[in-house]
Design a protein that fits this description.
By secondary structure, this protein is an alpha/beta fold. It has helices at residues 15-41, 44-50, 54-82, 89-110, 115-135, 175-185, 195-205, 216-226, 250-267; strands at residues 143-148, 188-192, 209-214, 231-235.
Length: 268
């Protein structure tokens, strides 16, 4: 299958986002290597006073730990650069989501990247890892479109949380379009008002893959909370400010669905 490439943040990885995250991973690797050298070098002479062989033992321990971390970072860079799966990609994604995001955020701030830049790059990398995992013989059978409540028109009196089918499809917001996509591609659609309800919906629906739309903060935290369950993230659009009549690029959602559903059909 031909690899697609979205032009919007929150879609497939753009080249600037790839370069941002690759730069941050490279800087993080250098920083980790420097710290490991310090951890070993500083107490080196103290180790030798305890036992003549202790510096060698500690050197092996530090080398193994450092090698594992640096190898993980290298594999992560390969996946990002090539968009292809690698062995243990599922565990690699979990490690990247749970362990590397806070570190990359700190490193990014130290070298002048804005927090939002790091968040966009993080979601783009996560999306690459999710796609690589799906392409490598793990196509999702149960897909959930998880949307924020702020996509609904603020003046709408209809309650669609938990029961999105209550939507009257008036066309004043994107919920109508999302319902049509869910029916067209035979996937599930849910609307959540916050993280607690979103987690409850995920537990009830038990999807193999979530395509989630949210702002930077909610999307990055949601991806972390649901790991190792794969979440493909798309940022919402906020023409009227945060949490009010937000928008989502329907064509981007549909493009992701097309690829996922195609993989699902090929897998079956």
């Amino acid at each position: 299958m031909k690899k697609q490439d979205f032009s919007d943040s929150g879609g497939f990885t753009r080249r600037p986002e790839k370069m941002t995250i690759l730069t941050l991973i490279g800087l993080t690797a250098v920083l980790i290597l420097f710290i490991l050298i310090l951890v070993y070098t500083v107490p080196y002479y103290g180790f030798s006073r305890i036992h003549a062989q202790l510096p060698i033992v500690m050197g092996i321990i530090v080398a193994v730990f450092g090698g594992a971390v640096l190898l993980s970072l290298l594999l992560l860079m390969v996946v990002i650069a090539l968009g292809r799966d690698v062995p243990l990609s599922k565990r690699l994604r979990s490690l990247a989501v749970k362990g590397f995001l806070p570190v990359l955020t700190v490193v990014g701030r130290l070298v002048g990247f804005k927090k939002q830049q790091v968040q966009h790059a993080f979601v783009a990398v996560n999306n690459e890892l999710v796609l690589a995992q799906c392409r490598n013989g793990h196509p999702p059978q149960r897909i959930l479109l998880l949307m924020p409540h702020c996509l609904q028109n603020a003046d709408c009196p209809v309650k669609i949380t938990y029961r999105v089918e209550n939507c009257k499809r008036c066309g004043k917001c994107r919920i109508k379009d999302l319902l049509e996509l869910a029916e067209k591609y035979d996937v599930s659609l849910a609307v959540a008002t916050g993280g607690t309800i979103a987690r409850k919906i995920v537990i009830e629906r038990r999807p193999d893959l979530i395509i989630a739309v949210a702002c930077e903060r909610d999307l990055t935290s949601g991806i972390q909370d649901t790991t190792p369950l794969p979440v493909y993230g798309i940022f919402n659009q906020r023409p009227f400010g945060p949490c009010f009549n937000t928008q989502v690029a329907i064509d981007h959602v549909e493009s992701v669905l097309k690829e996922m559903v195609a993989m699902r059909r090929e897998g079956s």
